[in-house]
């Protein structure tokens, strides 16, 4: 069974952007704007549109994800996949 790598360090580096160092030795700058989506009434992730709340992201105790006040969280598996996707996209864009 495959498990997502663990988060070693996470730092908010911009609006909807977090730089994550992984247990694999990789570091990805991950844009979470596609995950939070447009601000919609009743959406629990709407709170993350507030930069002050987004900036409160913390890695879970075991590096299994990021969490925010109010019980919002994103798992390491989703964050790792997003980071890898963004990393590949950025490399392809630089080659063009």
Can you put this structure into words, describing what you see?
The protein is α+β, with helices and mostly antiparallel strands and 96 residues long. It is 29% helix and 30% strand. It has three helices and six strands. The chain has a three-stranded antiparallel β-sheet with strand order 1-2-3. The mean pLDDT is 85.
Largest sheet: 3 strands, antiparallel
| Helix content bin | 25-40%
- The topology string of helices and strands comes to EEEHHEEEH
- CA radius of gyration: 13 Å
Terminus-to-terminus distance:
37 Å
Total of helices: 3
Shape from CA axes? globular
Question: Strand sequence of the main sheet, in spatial order?
Answer: 1-2-3
- Mean pLDDT, to the nearest integer, reads 85
Strand tally: 6
Alpha-beta content class: alpha+beta
Percent strand: 25-35%
Which consecutive residue ranges, at least 5 long each, have pLDDT under 50? none
Short description:
By secondary structure, this protein is α+β, with helices and mostly antiparallel strands. The protein has helices at residues 33-36, 51-54, 76-95, and strands at residues 7-14, 17-22, 27-31, 58-59, 65-68, 72-75.
List the helices and strands and how they pair.
Blueprint: E1 7-14, E2 17-22, E3 27-31, H1 33-36, H2 51-54, E4 58-59, E5 65-68, E6 72-75, H3 76-95
Antiparallel strand pairs: 1-2, 2-3, 4-5, 5-6
List keywords for this structure.
96 residues, globular
């Amino acid at each position: 069974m495959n498990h997502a790598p663990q988060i070693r360090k996470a730092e908010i580096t911009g609006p909807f952007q977090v730089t994550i160092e992984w247990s694999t030795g990789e570091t990805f700058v991950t844009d979470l704007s596609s995950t939070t989506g447009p601000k919609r009434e009743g959406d629990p992730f709407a709170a993350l549109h507030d930069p002050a709340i987004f900036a409160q992201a913390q890695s879970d105790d075991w590096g299994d994800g990021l969490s925010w006040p109010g019980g919002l969280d994103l798992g390491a598996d989703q964050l790792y996949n997003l980071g890898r996707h963004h990393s590949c996209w950025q490399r392809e864009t630089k080659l063009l």
